[in-house]
Amino acid sequence: MNEYIPAQYSMRLTVGSHAARHVRRIVRSFLKEWRMPELSDAVELGVTELLANVVQHVPDRRCELLLLRQPAGVRVEVTDGSDELPLSPAHVDPEAEGGRGLLLLDAMADKWGVSPWHGGGKTVWFECGALDDTTDPQQWSHHQEMLG
User: Fold this and answer.
1) 79-122 pLDDT tens trace
2) Global pTM exceeds 0.85
3) Closest listed residue to residue 77, CA positions, set 53, 112, 110
4) Beta bridge pairs of residue 116
5) In this structure, are residues 55 and 113 in contact, taking their beta carbons and an 8 Å threshold?
6) Could you give the count of Cα atoms lying within 13 Å of 142 in the half-sphere of its Cβ?
7) How far apart are the first and last CA of the chain?
8) Alpha helix ranges (H) inside 1-148
9) What is the per-residue pLDDT across 120-130, written as a single tens digit (0 to 9) for each?
10) Bridge partners (DSSP) listed for residue 13
11) Is 135 helix (H, G, I), strand (E, B) or coil?
């Protein structure tokens, strides 16, 4: 293990077809170093969904990803230059191939939101809490069931 582990990691990228796979590997590595490997599945899923939204909705596919270690978990932020705000669909056609990303994010994250920027663009963020000695095991079990 490294002697110095930064409390945050950020990168600017143009999202392509393989970006999510590489970013997931980086996220997994930081969560392991931060001793929060139990969050890997949820955080990697959330990152994948946010990057997929950049690919689908941001014309230049450019964004900045910020991974922040918090006292009891992790926060992920994806900022892009598009003014289009994500909307959770009221109804998703069971046959549709897409449209479930924010529903998944809502199910796996402890909280999430969108912060529009006055000069244009937005930040979509989510937070996941880590299991610690004060976490109620039944609460964690329920959270894991929701993840599937």
Assistant:
1) 999 998 887 666 666 665 666 678 888 889 999 999 999 989 99
2) no
3) 112
4) 122
5) no
6) 6
7) 30
8) 19-33, 40-57, 101-108, 137-147
9) 999 999 999 97
10) 63
11) coil
Please give the structure tokens belonging to residue 122: 């937005």
Cα torsion for 88, 94, 96, 97, to the nearest 10°? 90
Largest CA distance in the chain: 50
Check if the beta carbon of residue 74 is closer than 8 Å to that of residue 128.
Answer: yes
Selection from 76, 84, 93, 83 nearest residue 20 by Cα: 76
With a CB cutoff of 8 Å and minimum separation 6, the contacts of 84 are: 57, 58
Instruction: Answer positive or negative: Cα dihedral of 25, 48, 12, 70.
Output: negative
The pair of three-digit structure tokens given for residue 72, joined into one six-digit string:
């009891």
